[in-house]
Each structure stands twice: as C-alpha cells, then as structure tokens.
Amino acid sequence: MKKILPFLILALLLTIIPPGGSSANTSVIQLGSDVLFTQFHQVIEDKKVGLLTNQTGINGSGVSTIDMIRRDYSVTLTALFTPEYGLNGKTPPDDPNTTYLHPVYGVPVHSLTGPEPQLTKEMLQSMDILLVDLQNIGTRHDSYLSLIHSCITAAKEHDKPIIILDRPNPLGGMIVDGPVLDPAFLSEVGVDTLPLTHGMTIGELALFFNRTIGADVTVIPMAGYKRSMTYQETGLVWFPPSPQLPDLNAVLGYLATGIGEGTNLQHDDSYNWMGAEGIDAYQFADLMNASLLPGVVFFPEERESAGGVRIQIIDPRLFNPAKTGIYALAHAEKLSDVVIQTGSSEHTLFDLRMGTSKVGEMLKQEASPKEIEATYVPQLAQFLSLRVPYLIYNEEHYYPTMPISLKQHVSPAPTPIQTPEADGNMTETAPKPDAMPAVPNPAKPGSEGSVQPDQTNGSKPSQPQVQQPAASTPVPGTPTPESPPAKAAAPAPNQNPAPPVAEKVAYLTFDDGPSPVTLHILETLKSFDAKATFFVVGRSIPGNEEILKQIVAEGHSLGGHSYSHDYRYLYESVDAFFADMEKGNKLIEDATGVKPALFRYPGGSTNTISLKYQDPKHYNNNHTVMAAIKEESNKRGLTFIDWNVTNGDARSNRYTATEALAQIKQQVKNQKEIVVLMHDTATKSATSQSLPQVMQFLKEKGYHFEAISPDRQTISTVK
C-alpha cells in the first residue's frame, strides 16, 4: 500500500490541474474569455458555438477557450476556425489541408488563410453564434484584423451573431501614430482607415469595423484593465501569435524594424535588427540616437555586407514603433537609397503597407522625418475623433456589468474627401464620418430603478496623445490646440415661457447618454424640427464632448443625471449625492461652457431604492436620505425633472420598437403637458428606432415639442 500511495496522490493532483496547465492566475486583469464564463455565461448558454481561435486563445489561468467550452455541458462546440499557422501556431502557411476533422474534439476545423478568407454559409449553418478569441499585435498590418473584418462581414451576410472576447493591445492604448490608410489603398494588409498604430483592443476594433458593416456584434470586455496599461503590467503570459513573433520584444520591434517591407531594407533577429547594404552602421546608429526617439536606443551592428542597428527598447510605455519606423526609413534613405520594389499591381507593396503613396514619394525627395510626419498629422487628428465612439477603456480600472452588444447603424464606407489646409490649398484626407457616438461603458446601470452591484467605473477613455513632430518651428499641417470653451452665461429667465393653456406640449427626455444612439436621436429630432432634453451621466462624457456641444448647439437642453449613476454611493448620504452630482455637472460645464441647472434623480425623485443604501447611522424610514437630498436641492435652487409618461425601456433591454411605441400610446391620453422618459444607451437601440413613430403619434395628438428650461418649475411635479 505504501508503494501505491505516491501514485494515488499524483493521480489526484493530475485530476485537479486543468488540461491547459496550472490554474494559478498571476494576471491583474481578467480577459474577455475569463469574463465570459464568470459573468456573462448567459450569452453562450444552450447555444451551438463556432470558435475562431488558435494557441493564443488562453485565459488568465492558462486554460484554452476550447477546453473551457468543452467542459461546459450547456454549450455545444460545433466547429473551429483558425487563422494563419493553424490551431497550434505551427502549421505551415502553405499547408493544403485547409479543412479536417479534429481527432480529439470531433468537430471540423476550417483554416481561414489567404488574402481574402471566407466564411461560407455551409461553415456557419451548424452554429448559433461565432465566438472569436485571438491575440492581435497592435498594428494595422496584423493579418488577424483582416480576418476579423472578414468574419464580421460574413456574420452580417449570413445573419449570425458574432462575439469578440477582448484582449489587451500589446503596443498599449496610448500611442496612436503613423500614416492613416487612404481608402484608395484598402487591401488585406489594411482593411480600414487606421494609422500604423491605432491604440485599440481587438474588441474596440470590432466595434470600429462594424460601423460600415452593420452586423450583430457583441464584445465581452476585460475586467480590471485600463488604457495606459502595458502588456507587462497586466501580468499575463505572452503566447506568440506566430513563429516570427516569439516574445513581446519582437512584437514591439515588428513595426519599427519591419516597416521597410517592400523595399531593400532588411530585418533580422525577430525584428530586433534592421539595415541594408550600403549603410554605415555607425552613422545609422548616430542618426537614430540623435533623433531622441522615446523609450529606445540603437547600437550599430553589421550583418554580412549590410550595415544596420540593433534596437534596445528601454521603456515599453514610451516606445513608439510607428515613429521609430518612419525615422529609420528617412535616415536610411540619406545613407543609402531606399529602393521601393515595384510589381504588377496598381500599388507597390510598400505603399499598401503605408496606406498611402505619400511616404514613398517623400522618401524619394529625401524629406526629413519631421516633414514626413507633418503630412499625416491632420489625418491622425481626424482618426482620433473617429475612433472615440468605439473605445471601451479609460484611465480607471474597468469593470463591466454587461456585454457591449450593438447592431450598428451602417455608415457609408470611407471615401476620400477634399478638405482645406491652413494655407488654403485642398488636400485629400479621410472623411469625417457619420460615426456612431461613443460606445457606452457597460458598467452603467441600464435602467432606472435597477442596481448594478459591480459598477465601479465608467468614464470614457482619456484621449491618447498623437505623437507630434518635435520642432522649434511650426510643422506644416500640425493643428493648433483649441482653446477651452468660454463659460457661457446662465440662461436668461423665461427663455422658454409656459405655453398657452390651449397648447399641448411634449417634453422628450433621454437619460444615461451619451451613447451609440445619441446621434440617431439628434437626427430624428432635427427631422421633426423638435427640441428635447438630455440628462447625461458624467462618466460617459470624457471623449464625447463634441456630442454635448452638438446637443447644445442644436438648441436642446442638457441636465445632470449624476456622475456615476451608482445607487450604492449616490444614496448613502446627502454629501455623497452632491459630490457625485457636482462632479458630473463640472464635466458638462467644461465641455459646453454651460453650467447645468436641471437634473434628474437616478431612479426618480420618489424612488425607494435609496432606502436600501442610505447610511443607517444618519437616516431611517422617518428621516430618509431622499427627503434630505430634496431639501438640500431646494436650498441650492436646482430644478429636478421627473416624468409622467415612459416608453417602458427602463424595465428591460429586451424590447422592440413596436412595444416602446405601444407603451407611449397607452399612457398618452389628453394631458396638456407630458414629460416622456426614454433612455439613451447602447442597449436601448429600440428606443431610437421607435422615436420617429413616437413623435409622429404625438404630433397627431396635437403636441408640439420643447426643451425643458430651468424656469419651468411645474414640470418637476408631473410624475
């Protein structure tokens, strides 16, 4: 028995350790694959699932998403899809075996390789949803981006929902740089109008791509992640996405040293060296080091007949791969002609990878790095604005309480437009899009009267910096900083006087924005020449200031709806409520120059949820926190706004536009004055869809539409 005992113990240990390795989790964040199974399992429960993944599809505990699904008896894995290099990351790219039956899993495995990977109807017919778990490398050239773009397109074509499990961008979320792709140069190495480094996660990119596709896309966000985190700071183990990128140093160096693909410049040693024949290694290193590029130093090193530099990244947080690559190209051109290889296609490979022909043209003119940078600074600024609606993370650790599920309204595909430069000439740039407004933080309670216990965060992402050329004189094309908006005077009394008794007025109000549907709401209001009132949540404002400015510019009213919308904090005490409210109002004022005088209590002024969270040391059923807050509001001269009609969207996220309209029709009789409560969040798209019918119905009932003004005290009591 003593001889057998050690083997029994070993067998017991082996049953405890999961197939993917030890369950010890050293990461400080949860990946989308972790969050899927710990928080949002309902999105795959009882579903037939197809999974696009490879060796990078590993959760924070080292267990593959394949194994997590196979252990889950409520989910059926029906097919696997793989990118380049197959399921294990080692399959040769030219392997003819593109589809096979997995010997262990017993499901078909489809290889989606090639310049235009295609998901066919036959591949998708066996599944309810397509799940994607891949680690991208943070550059526009990443082949996974073209694959995901193709999958979203196929999901739209074949009416299949697609779920993206989010992962960090290994280049970080703060560096956005390099030429922005001109739509004329769209290809498999550039499927959208992105710069070389975009600073977006794979989930954010999926939302961004979907603006022109319109598929049913859901992102399962990470938990505990914030935008400025480096990959090293997440504590995650790096799993190489391809044999050429064995470690994080190779990923960081890929764009900096591999930027010359399509020219005579070479790279070597897992993207840690670059050079070319005819280059003096010492002069090259001197020029690169003299450029004072952030986070990196260069050492001269020759490889056979080629002179070049080895890069040593000393600070991954500061290192800018795109900027480094552009400087390397310009300096290499001065030391030895950079030969751009031509081919039979319309554009050279180098131009396709640059996303423009301008860089190649300027290299031939021996332009300086700063001159090359100046050609794309305006487009970078436009991209930063374009991407804002699709960002999920900010500078606070992010903790989601719901998936980000969005069936996008499709914007036109990007096409070049003419825009004036500072000198009055016209230049071709990427268009200013009909972009959706910001993807709302899913940490926000989705409805009045509901409580989201995990909500701790939700402000919009801080705007990453564009790496501007450092020059003592102004760089051509560089936009000058905008001055902050001047503080506007408070609205004059009686700007919106009480309507005559004979008139019927409808005050349309939208809570919890800005969100992906705000611009659609504004478009509808404009089509009816109508004004409305938006009660915004402060944590959703950063990055969405332009939306608030548009609301004000178009004559609508803005009111506060707290900063956090977190009942646990808001209704603990009077001090907590007003600290939170004032924080949100300050963001509104900073964005628009107007200090809001209107506000709406989260949950309404007669809510009972506040009783649950009031501090029992100071409040009880006879002296409630809500009564104390309202008393203090009166002292401060604030106007709170309730409602007497609602479309019912606060009760559930599963409702239709028809149901929302029916709710309005049921409640609107012949009241002289109605305040209609609706919600402005990503999960309330049916509200936006129903709005034209709602407004038409109210017009036919004899109502006209007005924005709420602080001097209209009576409408605070309509509830």
Automatic annotation (TrEMBL):
It comes from the Bacteria. GO terms for molecular function: hydrolase activity, acting on carbon-nitrogen (but not peptide) bonds; peptidoglycan beta-N-acetylmuramidase activity. Residues 449-460 have a biased composition (Polar residues). Keywords: Signal. Residues 410-500 are annotated as: Disordered. Coiled coil: none annotated. One of its GO terms (biological process) is carbohydrate metabolic process. Residues 1-24 form the signal peptide. It comes from Brevibacillus invocatus. The keyword Signal applies. Residues 461-475 have a biased composition (Low complexity). Residues 504-706 form the NodB homology domain. InterPro entries: Glyco_hydro/deAcase_b/a-brl (IPR011330), NamZ (IPR008302), NamZ_C (IPR048503), NamZ_N (IPR048502), NODB_dom (IPR002509). The keyword Signal applies. This is DUF1343 domain-containing protein.
